[in-house]
Amino acid sequence: MNLTDIFIRRPILATVVSMMLLVLGLRALSGLAVLQYPRTENAIVTVTTTYYGADPEIIAGFITTPLENNIAQANGIDYISSTSHNSLSTITANLRLNFDPNKALTEINAKVNAVLNQLPPESQTPVLSVKIGETIDAMYIGFSSDILPANNITDYLIRSVQPKLQAVEGIQTAELLGSKNFSLRAWLDPNKLAAYALTASDVSTALTKNDFIAGLGTTKGQMVQINLTASTSLHSVAEFENLIIKQQDGAIIRLKDVANVTLGADDYEESVSFDGNKAVYIGLQVAPSANLLEVIGRVRAVFPDIQAQLPEGISGKIVYDSTKFVDSSIDEVVHTLIEALLIVTLVVFAFLGSPRSVLIPVIAIPLSLIGSAWWLTTPSLSSRMSTGILKTVCSRFRLHCWQPVN
């Protein structure tokens, strides 16, 4: 007697088993992940070092090369790439698939600290960052204005918009693209510097000495306690223009005498545009363990509030959404399944000509698809059941079976 004969002779049992598969499948559909590829963990560790004023050759010879040679000795690295630009060195270490990123970050940090004494004294301390999972942004949101400059937009995004987007559950990083941070720019005049016997280093030293923060402590009386502060910082362009650079023979040389002081951006060498429109963009990266559709859905839910709170003159819109591709792929799969069901029904009816025979595939195909969802969401159970069935078949036919290693 075959196993299928039991369900033919006992229709109630067949109905109960079918209903059980239907209920378990419907319950499992809500937890079924939507992934373009199987879940893996790939990580990238980036080491960024700044050396202001240095050309690419100096950056490559004195910063990138010693750091890269030492970082390459860390475990778990698949390959390393590096770039050396004016004032900036970037080293990217791509880790092996599924290698522990925390362990790799610890080893790379130790390798970087081992060569800090070999770097130029004027260079900044290397900054390490790690990105896990998809390194391509899942969504781009653009902010532009016909009235305000880019540094005003950047300042508002950093203070108000970026924290709200990073607080969305499932967002790994909300990075600014094309940002222009506020920065005081002192454009030195070489002729005036030569006339006053000054160099750019003298100006830099004067600026450094006036950028001083001190904790002076407190003073106490019988009934009063006062916190002491030293207000040495400058807050406006006019205050910087009047900054004393040098005193010579009773004459005072100020910064405005040798430079044109303006409040601008920290970087004029980078520009980002989308479809030909220049703006400041925020790129959203989804965490590796998060569901892309759910996370982007949460972002779309909070975005109207962000738009409503934008200052006058700033407009924001979603310029790219990767979930449109996923949604279209899911819709295409659904259409294909419906078309397959209709074709099977027509073929069965054409060859058998019986409405009862058509009813069987109409019920069996959707039931099988829904039941497979439960099987996919319980991999450990399905693995044990598959192993049990394999052992039963092998023992029945006396075959030599491969035994999986736990």
Number of alpha- plus pi-helical segments: 13
- Return the structural class: alpha+beta
Q: Main beta sheet: strand number and arrangement?
A: 4 strands, antiparallel
Kindly report how far apart the N and C termini lie. Answer: 35 Å
The residue ranges in which pLDDT falls below 50 over 5 or more consecutive positions are 381-387, 396-406
Radius of gyration: 33 Å
Helical amount = 40-55%
How many structural domains can be distinguished in the coordinates? 4
Q: In what range is the share of β-strand residues?
A: 15-25%
Which term fits the overall shape? Answer: elongated
Average pLDDT confidence is: 81
The assembly state of the depicted protein chains is single chain
Task: Walk across the major sheet and give the strand order.
Answer: 2-3-1-4
How is the secondary structure organized here?
Elements: H1 3-9, H2 11-29, E1 43-50, H3 56-71, E2 77-85, E3 88-95, H4 101-114, E4 127-132, E5 139-144, H5 150-166, E6 171-177, E7 182-188, H6 190-195, H7 200-210, E8 215-220, E9 225-229, H8 237-241, E10 244-248, E11 251-254, H9 255-258, E12 259-265, E13 273-274, E14 277-278, E15 280-286, H10 292-308, E16 315-321, H11 323-352, H12 355-377, H13 379-397
Antiparallel strand pairs: 1-3, 1-4, 2-3, 5-15, 5-16, 6-15, 7-12, 8-9, 10-11, 13-14
Helix pairs in contact: 1-2, 2-12, 11-12
Structure description:
With 406 residues, the chain is α+β, with helices and mostly antiparallel strands. Helix content is 46%, strand content 24%. The protein has 13 helices and 16 strands. The chain has helices at residues 3-9, 11-29, 56-71, 101-114, 150-166, 190-195, 200-210, 237-241, 255-258, 292-308, 323-352, 355-377, 379-397, and strands spanning 43-50, 77-85, 88-95, 127-132, 139-144, 171-177, 182-188, 215-220, 225-229, 244-248, 251-254, 259-265, 273-274, 277-278, 280-286, 315-321. The strands form six sheets. Strands 2-3-1-4 form a four-stranded antiparallel beta sheet. Strands 6-15-5-16 form a four-stranded antiparallel beta sheet. A two-stranded antiparallel sheet has the order 7-12. Helix 1 (3-9) packs across helix 2, helix 2 (11-29) packs across helix 12 (355-377) and helix 11 runs antiparallel to helix 12. The model is unreliable at 381-387 and 396-406 (pLDDT under 50).
